[in-house]
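As a warm-up, study this chain.
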Amino acid sequence: MLFDIKLADVPLSARGSYNVSARSAHVPRSAELRDERLARDASPDIFIELAHGERLSEIRQSWIELLERTDEPNVFMDPALVRAAADAYPETGCAALLAWRHRDERPQLVGVWAFAVGFARPSAVPVRVLTVPPFQHGYAATPVLDRDCRDEALDAMLERIAADPHLPKIVSFDAMAIDGPAMAALTRVLRSRGSVPRILDRALRPRLESELAGKDYLDKALSSSRRKKLRQHRRRLSEKGEFASVVTTDPQAVRRALEQFLQMEASGWKGRQHTALLCSDADASFARAAVGTLADQGRACIHALCIDDRPVSMQIVLRAGAAAFTWKIAYDEKLHDVSPGMLLLEDYTAAFLDDAGIAFVNSCTHDDSGFMSVWTEREAIANLWIDARRGSSVAFEFFWRLQKTYCGLRALIKSAYLTPRRLRARK
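Now compare it with the structure written out below.
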């Protein structure tokens, strides 16, 4: 019984689905070739589906089951978010490669790798690539893979990209975890295909992962003088009215809180720089759809500090399995002198560590230079390019070197601009 023909409960998406052996060096041309290969190869086949639109909403249960079998949950690969991004940014062609295998007479999802088609972010290189994650407001590029078949799933996904005449062959990863099993598997698979990942730049990202209770962790992470100052700030805020720390989880309440968040963010420096979510109809639409859908599934909440029921700082938290992601933060800048964002970080840090359902928290920051550096654990991340084709491509080598030069110059200019400002801030 052919696996790719009998997947009755996995309807194919409108574009591009085919079966490729994890060990095969070519795309099978017919069912006869698949039968022949199955006879000589005992390893299970990996079925690759290129999923769009409504199809991404149909696989929720399979996604939840995959999260139980992965070592690296990533909410930015969540099919619900990819669907929201596809609707909000139709010009980007957001889609997801889904890797399936046959287990216990039913299809089992063993990999999700979402991408969009466009230009690398940031880039001045005039070449279209697959961008991962598939939307600008995604902060982790690691594919979600079943721990039992990482290499097989990745090899099949790369073969799918390489064989599709409509897809670019260069893949650009933004914030890929480089010390985890997915990166190790990707490196092995690329090596077997005659290429290597090309690192553009690296950074360390704060991460929360500790066996300590919330109060003990904060006592260790913060100096006594800083804890004293924060207590003073909390007291000053409490003098302004009824002061409370609130976690909103009810789906409709989350949607209402999100509107407050959007207004707060737009009223601050992000609004002035036109980078707030409300500054773009598409970004606002994406945020509402993404947070609302995850809230309906019990996988999004909003932490807030409030004075007389008015939020003064807010943090959107998204979930994928046992992982939490601190996606977006906003605070009332008129209260900057009493650090409402830092006080909120104290509260949700303690809440995360006291929640047995959370194994770790991804800070979603670009590096460890911000206020979330209070978290003492670190995750190594990198921006990198790979070539989905087998062997080495002259064009790929040229373009990634051009991109690396551009990124290096950009970082140099940014450092020259920011260093004097940071030195003045310390005086």
